[in-house]
Amino acid sequence: MSTTSTSDRPDTGRRAGELTFRELLRWVWRQLTSMRTALVLLLLLALAAVPGSIIPQEGVDALRTTQWQEQHPDLTPVYERLGLFDVYGSPWFASIYVLLMVSLVGCIIPRTWKHVASLRAAPPRAPRNLARLPDHASYRTDEDVDAVLERARQVLKRRRYRVRPSDEGDAAVSSERGYLREVGNLVFHLSVIVVLVGFGVGSMFGYKGGVILPVGQGFSNNLTQYDDFNPGSFFTGDDMEPFCFTVDDFDVEWLLDGPRAGMSRGFSADTRYQVDCTGADQSEEKDYDLRVNHPLAIGDTEVFLIGHGYAPVITVRDGNGDVVTTGPTVFLPQDQSLFSFGVVKSAYAATGQVGLEGVLYPTFMLDQNGDPQNLMGELNNPLISMLVYTGDLGLDSGEPQSLYILKKDGAEPVQNEDGTPLRLDMQVGDTVQLPDGLGSVTFEGIQEWNRLQISKTPAKFVTLAGVVLALLGLLGSLFIRPRRLWVRARVVDGETLVEVAALDRSGGGDVTTEIDEVVAALRGDSPAKENP
Amino acid sequence: MTNASWETLSNQAIAVCGVVYFLALLSHLIEWSALRKLPLSVGSVPVAATRTSSAGAAGGSTTAVLDEPEVDEDAERRTNLFGRLGLLLTVIAVAVHLVGLVGRGMAADPNRVPWGNMYEFTISGSFCVALLYLVLYRKFSLAWMAPIVTGLVLVLLMVAVIWLHDEVAPLSEALNSPWLVIHVVSAVIATGAFTLGGIGVLLFLLKERTEKRGKSGGYLARVPSTATLDRVSYRIHAFAFPVWTFAVLITGPIWAHQAWAAYWSWDPKEVWAFITWVLYAGYLHARATAGWKGRNASILALLGMATLWFSFIGVNFFITSDHSYAEGLGQSTVVSTRL
Predict the structure, then answer these.
(1) Do B264 and A299 meet the contact criterion of CB atoms below 8 Å apart?
(2) Using omega within 30 degrees of 0 as the cis cutoff, is the peptide bond preceding A532 cis?
(3) Residue from the list B262, B272, B287 with its beta carbon closest to the beta carbon of A455
(4) Contact A307 B332 (CB under 8 A)
(5) What are phi and psi of A523, to 5 degrees?
(6) How many CB contacts within 8 angstroms connect chain A with chain B?
(7) Strand pairing partners for A174?
(8) How far off is chain B from A444, nearest CA to CA, in Å?
(9) Chain A residue numbers touching B326 (CB-CB < 8 A)
């Protein structure tokens, strides 16, 4: 047997079962493109997606990932090596879907040729004994064989069957329909590749960035203006469009009663934007009402409103009375009532660095136990409550620091005379003198900010077209019934015996009604058509 | 009517339809207990004649007549009566259930579709299960499914009312989109259909096991043949799968893109919906793969149903997701949903 398969080469005395490299490749290819392998890979893909939903992912929620890593110092290096913080970008996840794609292509291409061939070939001839097929019917009539067969052709053509031109000497009609099922099947599988390509292009050539923008401030689209920026691996800064915009006003509607009292809705940011803010020929200014679910599209880039919060305006003066920091400081919301956390850093005070760390209560109140509570997110009774630190806050070192974290390693809390930490509880307009000649802190007011997501996703319509195409193909492959139907007529005892049989090729289809309808059409018309 | 009275109406309608489903279940239980006394060929749920009726007509019928023991006519009448009564009660329950859904939507200000939180999703989903069962009742001869469907819908409603109930409330901002109607309604329909198909698959596995052991009696004896069960559950799944594809891979990403700036961000809810999709795709694929037909394919479908319900319940309760009020630092929660 081995001589036939390797006839083009002399037999080098290989052991039985030994494969040449080429045979091995062919064997691997055949295994890979088998339906069973595709199925196993599909299940592996499902399984591999699970850890990414349980372990926090860097790409999904970077902050939670960092927190998790701090809490699990032992597991973190192991997980990191396994790529478990970026499952969907990890090599092992990619290898599964790449193998799946290869398997899919390897399966689809031969099937396409096969289907093209079957589209060009005539439907297969009728089996010798139609009564042996599981679904069949027969009747007797006085008509002659040719008339029955001629009508059968018409009936089947009307029912959108492809009819074999002739059955070569057999008094039978062979027909087939439902070729679109396989077409749908092929389209579905090919569209999966389109989707993957579109998704890949979108994530490789696009970017996603976020910025917290105080109301009234402008934003122009370049890297330095972003708080966080996630470019795709092939994204270059040149692809950034030169637009700019300003949020002039921000409206929120607060629900004061009902089951969701305290909830906010109706976010609306009045935005002015220009498509091109660079160079001499600036484009004209346009207005847009930026809302949740209604992104602003500028060129191929889109701006999304995804959050809002408060930025207290806090001024710190040093012991000499000189202003060392002022302006809005963004506080990060901790919950839906916009109870927020933030820090103020003043590096260059002549009398020593001062840092404030604390919280903002938009609607401050004391509950019956005398504990501070935040009633809701609306600014009804705003209060900031901050601890004061002095010493080395690491502000001179030049190392990059988070805006929202105060480095307290080298600092000490400022204390009251009785030794308790000094806490500033301030309402708008309050000024507090710090002890030891450190200066003063003034709470001037509160500004609002918006959190905006800005993203560019190339090829998103390719991806969408791919999914829609996949759905159409899927519908075809699920609901089109491919079937073959045969009619044979012969003379038995002076009468014509007509046999009808059908085969459902999809598996799971029921062809009995089809046979009944064809038989009815063949018989029902016969008296009327006999004498035209 | 005021919003409050619509809400009361909705709550009452859900309670009433729960009671009616319970009566329907009772009625079907009486039917099935009477069926035990009857030979398999008679009663309100006769064992369906096999497709190749010609073979049965040739030799089967004569032996059947010979073997047939005396039929307890009283029991037969009882099965027919309670079978029909159960069906009628189910129809009434579904109608009242619909009133509950409409009332829920009318109670909100502004009026909206009744699937804005988990309670509403559950009552909509169970409505869908019951409605699909009625719609397909004749097409697929689903009489055998009656006690399971009524029982399941009743349990789902109880879970909804006891654990998930929530007052009618305005939608959070991110949910306020036309895609809520399209995306969630397709998810609800697919969930209902997958659940119904899952019942078929489960019974296929049970029936197959008893057939292998050679003993067959009680309820399973009257359930259609494994071939029919397989075909019916396949066709229900074949309907549900494109709808699920539409919900999870088309409308979901479109909405996600509008609200979250990324059409696919591997949020846990997305991941589990994707896993569910892959498993059901695996089921459809397995039915066409040699060696995987029948038992293995059915197990995949059941796994799919498990992940489907996990992506609805589990993700909301056990995993932080933007779909379940994710509250992270540095990100305010304007755009989270809970469905």
Answers:
(1) no
(2) no
(3) B262
(4) yes
(5) -80, -45
(6) 190
(7) A486
(8) 23
(9) 61
Residues of A in contact with B235 (CB under 8 A): 508
Q: Which helix (H) or strand (E) holds B279?
A: helix B268-286
Q: Enter the DSSP assignment of A376.
A: -
CB contact under 8 A, A460 and B263: yes
Instruction: Give CA–CA dist B248/B194, Å, rounded.
Output: 14
pLDDT value at position B53?
Answer: 37
Highest mean pLDDT among A328-332, B171-175, B277-281: B277-281
Question: Residue B330: what pLDDT?
Answer: 29
- Chain B residues whose beta carbon lies within 8 Å of the beta carbon of residue A57: 266
Nearest CA in chain A to B248: A467
State whether B334 and A266 contact (CB < 8 Å): no
Rounded distance between C-alpha atoms, residue A52 and residue A37, angstroms: 24
Structure tokens at B81: 């009566």
Q: Where are the beta strands (DSSP E) in A156-199?
A: 162-163, 172-177
Minimum distance, in Å, between the CA of residue A160 and any CA atom of chain B: 23
Nearest to B315 by CA among B270, B261, B260, B277: B270
What is the rounded distance in angstroms from the CA atom of residue A201 to the CA atom of residue B207?
A: 48
Domains of chain B: 1-44+73-171 (1.20.120), 173-339 (no CATH)
From B224, B113, B119, select the one nearest A259 (Cα to Cα): B119
**DSSP per-residue string spanning B138-190:** TTTTGGGGHHHHHHHHHHHHHHIIIII-----PPPGGG-SHHIIIIIHHHHHH
How do strand A383-392 and strand A264-274 relate by DSSP bridges?
unpaired
Q: Which of B259, B290, B333 sits opposite A293 (nearest CB)?
A: B259
- The DSSP code for A125 is P
> Are the Cβ atoms of A478 and B170 closer than 8 angstroms?
no
- Is the pTM higher than 0.90? The answer reads no
Contacts of A307 in chain B (CB under 8 A): 331-335
A267 contacts in chain B (CB < 8 Å): 173, 334
- Cα–Cα distance measured from residue A30 to residue A63, given in angstroms and rounded to the nearest whole number: 45
Chain B environment of A304 (Cβ under 8 Å): 258-261
Which residue in the set A308, A404, A471 is minimally distant from B332, CB to CB?
A: A308
Give per-10-residue mean pLDDT for chain A (532 aa): 44 68 86 85 91 86 83 90 88 90 90 91 89 88 88 91 84 91 93 92 89 91 88 84 92 84 85 84 85 91 91 89 87 87 79 85 88 88 91 73 78 83 90 86 92 91 95 93 90 89 77 88 60 32
Joined tokens for residue B71:
């039929």
